[in-house]
Amino acid sequence: SLSVLQALEDGLKRADADPSVKAVMICGENGKFSAGADIRGFSSPKKCGTALGPIISLIERSEKPVVAAIEGVALGGGLEVALGCHYRIAHVKARMGLPEVTIGLLPGAEGTQRLPRLIGVPAALDIITTGRHVPATEALKLGLVDEVVEENTVEAAIRLANKV
Which Pfam families does the UniProt entry name for this protein (predicted)? Predict the structure, then answer.
């Protein structure tokens, strides 16, 4: 939603400007990182506000480490947000993917560029063109995430942020 995008942008800008902040951790709520955009909004007239692509670029450009704590699902725009982060930790039961293709859409926030850079072209093409959900253990093998944990993902992400 526009309010979530605006809050993410505002939070990132505040963190970057605050010298006491050493790292940023992005997580979802209620055991889910993000299932992506609400497709019902795709048919609505464009509203003024923040777009996802520039926010992901803001994450990527941050001079402070940004860690994604992925629980549940990181799908579509949710995965694209995680791809913009410098590090990604996933719960063992998490799933990631770009399912937009199953309804005839391509990922629109540069996921088609960031994913191949991270895991290589063949693996990225499989994920981009099939829309399949990748389990956390496979994501680790592919290099999509840096760590898989069975414990509290947010606490693990904070530990990693403190370490880097």
Answer: ECH_1
CA proximity to 100, closest of 52, 140, 154: 52
Helices and strands per DSSP (H, E), number in the chain = 7, 7
Q: So what's the architecture of 2-162 in CATH?
A: Alpha-Beta Complex (3.90)
Tokens of 31: 């055991």
Cα-based torsion angle of the residue sequence 99, 104, 106, 109 in order, rounded to the nearest 10 degrees:
-70
Closest Cα to residue 108, out of 42, 31, 15, 25?
Answer: 42
Q: Give dist(CA 142, CA 115) in Å, integer.
A: 11
pLDDT digits (tens, 9 = 90+) for 94-140: 999 999 988 888 888 888 999 999 999 999 999 999 999 999 999 99
pTM tops 0.85: yes
Tokens representing 148 are: 């898989």
* Residue of 27, 149, 135 whose CA lies nearest to 85: 27
Active-site residues: which are they?
80, 100
Q: Where are the chain's structural domains?
A: 2-162
